[in-house]
Structures are given as C-alpha cells and as structure tokens.
Design a protein that fits this description.
Layout (H helix, E strand, L loop, with lengths): L9 H20 L7 H43 L13 E3 L2 E2 H40 L28 H24 L4 H8 L3 E3 L6 E4 L4 E5 L5 E5 L8 H14 L2
Helix pairs in contact: 1-2, 3-4
Length: about 260
C-alpha cells in the first residue's frame, strides 16, 4: 500500500506504517502455530478500526480535492476560451464569447452608428422646422426675400419669407393667436351690419347712381348695390334681392349669383 505525504500528515503516516508492520506480523503468524496469535488478533482488530477512520478521512479529502479540481478546470476553461470574433484565447470574455477587445470594437461601431442616426434625425428636425416656419410665415404675410432685392439680391420665390428668429413652436403660437383673432372678427362680421367703407375696401370703388327712392345709391360691377335711405339707414342688395343686413348674407348672395350665371 502506498499513500502520498500530501494526503496524510507525518504523524498519520507513521501510525499507518506501524499498523502495516503489525498486520505483516499477523500474516506471518497465521502461517504457523504461535503462542502470540491471540495478541495479534487483538491488535489487528484495533488496527482495522484505525484503518476505517483513515478511510473516512481520506474520503473527505478526496471529495475536497475533487471540488478543487473542478474549480481549477473551470478556471483553465475560462482562461483558454476562444473569442468568436478574433479567435484569440482570452479570459476577458464579456458577452456571448466575445473578448474585451472585440467588445470594445463592437461598442465603438455602435456609437458611430448612433451618431450617424442622430445626425440624420437632427437634419430632419431642422428641415421640418424650416418648412413649418415657411408655411406659417406665408400664411401670416411675413415679408418675402424676393421683394427685398437690395438686401437679398437674386432672391426668388423659392427662397420663401423671412421669419426672423422664429422656430416652429413660436411661429405656431403666433398662428394660433391670429386664428383666434380671425374667429372673433368673423363672429362680429356675421352678426354686424355691413359698413360702406368696408365694402369699398373689399370690392373697390362703386359707381354712384341716382334714385327717387333713396338719398344715394352705389353699384359695384359684381352686382352688389348700396342704398342710403333718406332717413339715414343704409342697406345692401345683390341683384335686386331683399335687404342684406350682414356680411355673410352679402357673400352668400354674391356666390349664388355667380353660380347662377354659369
């Protein structure tokens, strides 16, 4: 029987050697009659119990060494893993069997892709902002570059309008305010009695005619007439219609007359 010193302590090894010597004497005694056979049997039973204790100790150490061996194998495996990208052996694997160097390259490429995407989105955002400003600027009657050749020589309709420091959000706020103003004005016009000066501003100067029924009569080429009664009250007509007392009524009558003339 051979046991390595790194498994048993020196005291254990000495005690085991003594047991082995006694067992050899017991084997020699078993080959012939001897008065010391009983002593050998007594000592042999003690030695067997001692050997069983050694066996338990050795079993525990074997289990410990097996665990250490498994851990060492895992460490060796990790230290010799092959990177899927560069095929180099490395212990610095990050994710999916990719080494630290290749992972860094992947992340650098990802950053470059994100920066390119970001640049494209910024361009789209700037283009959209410009288009919104131009669309609302036209609707709000901002000055055209083409109308100011002194400061913008060679400017054309394609250059659009000058909105100053506006961005999409600020000019949209102005557009909302203008829409609300127009809504208010429209509501007033729908319920207000027409004004002669407003009609002149909208349809141009009318021709003045005479009438025995009115103090003054005015006529526009589109068929609209304005009558000033002697009592001072005025009203509009379109193509001889009844009195029209609102701007909406005038617009509707003019549209109907134009449609009927088609």
């Amino acid at each position: 029987m051979t046991l390595h010193g790194n498994v048993l302590t020196s005291d254990e090894a000495g005690e085991l050697a003594a047991i082995q010597q006694r067992l050899e004497l017991f084997e020699d005694a078993g080959n012939g009659p001897s008065p010391s056979v009983g002593n050998f049997l007594f000592h042999a039973s003690e030695d067997v119990r001692t050997l069983l204790g050694f066996h338990s100790s050795l079993a525990a150490r074997v289990a410990e060494l097996t665990s250490e061996n498994s851990a060492l194998r895992d460490e060796i495996k990790d230290a010799t893993r092959v990177c899927d990208k560069c095929k180099a052996r490395s212990s610095d694997m990050i994710v999916d069997d990719v080494c630290l160097f290749c992972y860094g390259k992947q992340q650098s490429q990802r950053v470059a892709e994100l920066e390119e995407t970001n640049a494209g989105l910024r361009y789209e955002m700037t283009t959209t902002d410009h288009n919104v400003c131009q669309c609302l600027g036209h609707a709000l009657n901002y000055p055209r570059y083409a109308d100011d050749q002194a400061n913008f020589p060679g400017a054309t309709d394609a250059d659009g309008v000058c909105v100053g420091e506006h961005v999409a959000e600020t000019i949209a706020i102005e557009a909302v305010e203008e829409i609300e103003r127009l809504r208010t004005e429209l509501a007033l016009r729908q319920n207000a009695q027409p004004d002669f000066d407003v009609l002149v501003a909208k349809y141009g100067e009318p021709e003045q005619t005479s009438s025995k029924y009115h103090e003054a009569d005015y006529k526009w080429p589109n068929g609209l007439t304005w009558h000033v009664q002697r009592e001072g009250e005025s009203y509009a007509r379109v193509n001889g219609s009844n009195a029209l007392w609102t701007y909406d009524a005038i617009e509707n009558a003019l549209a109907a007359m134009k449609e009927a003339a088609k």
